């Protein structure tokens, strides 16, 4: 009622049956505004710690995340990545909508970064369509590094469902997984209008942090090139 998020392409989301909603990730508020534009529940995975707290605080935290459409990562199969995949399969197996951020972490500068192949593997193993999503304006409402920003009306754009049934049985082929993931990221880029950078967001964020630290300390902001003739001469 306060932010009144706008919606485009909601007709591409099926009224029933499972689907993967693959979205860009500009802000921690993305998982809140995207589901608000749909009549169906969208489920995301969250750290199990959010559901295991003790006392009143733990109960309130568990109630909030459960009510907001979050489920804990199922770590019974191993690490966090496998646990997230297992949790996602359970959600899709119930015929529900599952939300995922292929970039793996929030963009620190508003650009769109390389997607991780987990979304492709999930699509092939569950045989469900992938709907690309672009959420815009959330980085104004809740900018990276801040809890609150400025008022704006977020916009959520849903693209046409992507069918990858032509790759059935190839979920263990890393080249196929990369091709599918890149196709998904291209569609998200078309919807969002973001500049695409072909490196992982976590690596780009770390580089930016190191560069800023070097600038504050008065050091070099760019790595030296050992092939530079000037360096050789010195």
TrEMBL record:
Residues 210-225 have a biased composition (Basic and acidic residues). InterPro entries: Plipid/glycerol_acylTrfase (IPR002123). GO terms for molecular function: acyltransferase activity. Pfam families: Acyltransferase. Residues 210-234 are annotated as: Disordered. Keywords: Acyltransferase, Transferase. Residues 19-138 form the Phospholipid/glycerol acyltransferase domain. This is 1-acyl-sn-glycerol-3-phosphate acyltransferase.
